[in-house]
Design brief:
271 residues, alpha/beta, 8 helices, 48% helix
Length: 271
């Protein structure tokens, strides 16, 4: 979906160059407001009805996740309509499966929104503060996402989610990529893959300009719409990393090193 394209000829060009960046700042602000209002409305109006009408926790969670996926699709469309971003997704058909361990790099805050919008039965690991944030706690609790403060049980919870048929989205960096673009992987994603004997589906996310990156404010908007390119890669087989009865800790370390090299190469070669 593309944002508006505005062309002004002659003496109006200088005015257009001044107005369009200002409009994008306003559009970015409106996007944040819409996100916050949507989260609050879901918490106080929509999800309470789910608890009243659907007694089965499993069915309630599936419905909540489906609703969030559709809302995020609408949200991305809204940002495109307002000229904040454009996007292209390649290999989307590879995500039309179940029990996927989806690993993605993390250049912006919008990465989660994109993946949650296009992955069915998506589960993810959320920070504990999102469970108490007034704008996010309703959707996060209703959808039953995995709390990252579960400590020792975190990996086990992730594996259990995959075995239930969910598609688990994990950002192996643990946080957004720094502004210098250096990708540094944590070992959590590799532990899930090794202990769960799970193949991995890598997703490489690139954006033409920095937006909502680590340390950036929402009003730091590029002069032109940000173009997101999302490429779903071929699966990475876990077998090669756990063969010959190698110890799990050693396998996880080797896999983490491989993932760091893999995502660094895929991201920076294209750039």
């Amino acid at each position: 979906m593309s944002g508006w394209q505005i062309t002004v000829a002659g003496n109006g060009l200088a005015m257009t160059e001044r107005l369009i960046p200002n409009w994008r700042i306003l559009a970015a602000g409106l996007s944040f407001v819409a996100f916050g209002i949507g989260g609050v409305l879901l918490r106080i109006i929509v999800f309470p009805f789910l608890y009243l009408l659907i007694w089965s926790r499993k069915r309630r969670i599936l419905l909540a996740r489906s609703m969030i996926r559709l809302i995020f699709r609408f949200y991305i469309g809204l940002m495109g309509f307002m000229g904040v971003l454009r996007y292209e997704i390649q290999g989307l058909d590879k995500l039309n499966r179940g029990s996927l361990l989806i690993l993605a790099n993390h250049p912006t805050l919008l990465d989660t929104v994109f993946l949650m919008a296009f992955v069915k039965r998506a589960d993810c690991i959320v920070k504990a503060n999102l469970l108490n944030n007034p704008f996010t706690r309703g959707p996060v609790r209703a959808a039953g996402y995995i709390n990252n403060e579960h400590g020792h049980d975190l990996v086990a919870d992730c594996i259990a989610s995959l075995r239930c048929g969910n598609n688990l989205i994990v950002f192996p960096e643990g946080t957004r990529t720094p502004i210098d673009g250096v990708i540094s992987m944590k070992r959590g994603a590799a532990n899930i893959a090794v202990r769960g004997r799970c193949n991995m589906t890598p997703v490489v996310i690139r954006c033409s300009s920095a937006i909502l990156g680590k340390g950036q404010k929402w009003w730091q908007v590029p002069k032109s719409p940000v173009r997101f390119e999302i490429q779903v890669q071929e699966d990475i087989a876990i077998h090669d990393f756990i063969a010959n009865d190698i110890a799990e800790t050693r396998a996880a370390r080797h896999l983490t090193e491989y993932l760091q090299q893999y995502f660094t190469r895929k991201y920076h070669d294209h750039v």
